[in-house]
Amino acid sequence: QLQLVESGGGLVQPGGSLRLSCVVSGFTLTNYAIGWFRQGPGKEREAVSCISVREDITYYAYSMKGRLTISSDNAKNAVYLQMNSLRPEDTAVYFCAAYRMGPTATEPACYMFQSEYDSWGQGTQVTVSS
User: Fold this and answer.
1) Which of 19, 31, 99, 130 lies at a 20 to 30 A Cα distance from 1?
2) Euclidean distance between CA atoms 24 and 21, whole angstroms
3) What is the mean pLDDT of residues 45-56?
4) Confidence (pLDDT) at 65
């Protein structure tokens, strides 16, 4: 059974940093694409970043590009999202999600569309406020 568990959220001041973790079980990271999404209060869920561990390719939402780094640790079955220079508008519940990739590389290497993802974590709250 596929399972994803997020952690690392919390309250941070504007300009601060957080590192979110997504620990996965029941599957191998190299066979799946992992995405991070967020849903702010009164907003729709939106893509933040994704990674294809197999191809070692990452993508970022334009609104957050330059402030994010997504990475993986196969030994720990974990994907991380480092977020810097956080702003109040980054306040949201952050989710990680997964979908199984095909046997050959695709373009893009991972998709920034939530409809592609079929396994989701429960989310972790990030609040940016002074």
Assistant:
1) 19
2) 10
3) 95
4) 83
Can you point out the beta strands (E) in 1-130? 3-7, 10-12, 18-25, 32-39, 46-52, 57-60, 68-73, 78-83, 92-100, 119-120, 124-128
CA 42, CA 26: separation in Å to the nearest integer?
33
pLDDT at position 103 over 90: no
Distance (Å) of CA 56 to CA 5, 16, 21, 73: 22, 27, 18, 12
For residue 33, the cross-strand partners are 52, 99
Strand partners for 36: 49, 96
Residue of 76, 89, 101 lying closest to 7 (CA atoms) = 76
What tokens appear for 106 in the block?
């695709």
The residue type found at 36 is W
Strands 78-83, 92-100: pairing is: unpaired
Q: What angle do CA 53, 55, 58 make, to 5 degrees?
A: 65
